[in-house]
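Standup notes, structure subgroup. Blocker cleared on the flavin-adenine dinucleotide input:
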Amino acid sequence: MVITGKFAKWLNTNFEGRVWFMEPMSKHTYFKIGGPADALVTPETNDEVISLVKEAIQNNVPWMVIGGGSNLIVKDSGIKGIVIKIMHQKGWTSLENYSANCVKVTASAGIRLGYLCRYTFERGLQGMDFAVGIPGTVGGAITMNAGSGRGAIQDVLSEIQVLLPEGSIRRFQKDDFSFSYRSFDLKKEKSSDVYECPVILEGVFELRPGDSETIKKEAESALSERQAKQPSGSASAGCFFKNPSPQNSAGKLIDLAGFKGYRVGGAVVSDKHANFIINSGTATSEDVLKLAEIIQKKVFEMFGIELEPEVRIVG
Ligand SMILES: Cc1cc2nc3c(=O)[nH]c(=O)nc-3n(C[C@H](O)[C@H](O)[C@H](O)COP(=O)(O)OP(=O)(O)OC[C@H]3O[C@@H](n4cnc5c(N)ncnc54)[C@H](O)[C@@H]3O)c2cc1C
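Run returned:
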């Protein structure tokens, strides 16, 4: 445990009732797996996020930010340092009619992506249907460039506010981002480098005005498509591996390799969608990672394709 003395006291004083020491990460991940974090804190405002990061840096304590924990595997050994969970924020959204064809919606990082979707559908705004049913927060969705067959965050995100690790708060526009499949980078000015670990504080989304009823129907159809394809109610992190290409989805390759229902300890490949690894109740991270490795090896042997995890493995 690296958090003791002065820093532990500061946390207890400033985050009374919102800081937990040796907190099992299994309580904060959709996989329901993961050893303890030295400390986990739930800031409610951006100022609290900023002060946490600054104090952690000053005290030489490693820190990381999470959102809803829906794309995380935390190792059984846990996380050294402090986990800043940006989810229980006093979240907010706002709306600005930018032009006849564009409405800008601003959302704080800690609100649920599902809430943002509903907020836009109810106001007759088009563009977020790709996100229907994706769990987690706005900040997590931006970091992961979350999406579906209908689109992704990169299609609608126009601006962000971030906390850079050196402590400054900055706004960046579309031209400063680079997106790839399930990944987002913030480019450094006049350089080919990217910022390490920018903390997303808010996102601005450009949407189109449309007919509220049609938009709600589209959203319902997106949700039905998802429910037909994916297992629901199971502990997982959604799709485990990135799709190597549109023709070769990871699910198809894993299915062809015969893995549906295959098990290591408490970790099982879903019968419904082979790219979902599920915690059947007793899985450890070791089970999940061992199963993932076996799948990667076999898929490579059979198809010469290297599957790359979409989930973020931490700890
Ligand atoms: C049942 C299920 C279905 C899913 N379906 C989809 C799908 O269709 N499409 C899809 O893309 N994903 C899907 N996912 C994966 C997951 O929901 C997304 O990746 C989601 O956007 C992650 O958001 P989160 O808030 O839970 O992030 P977390 O899992 O908490 O974190 C993910 C990453 O983002 C970082 N992060 C989180 N918040 C911030 C922040 N404010 N600032 C900086 N970094 C941050 C974390 O450090 C971590 O690296 C699914 C997951 C589940 C469990």
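Discussed briefly. Helices lie at 5-14, 46-58, 113-122, 138-144, 212-229, 250-256, 285-303.
Next: hand off to the docking folks.
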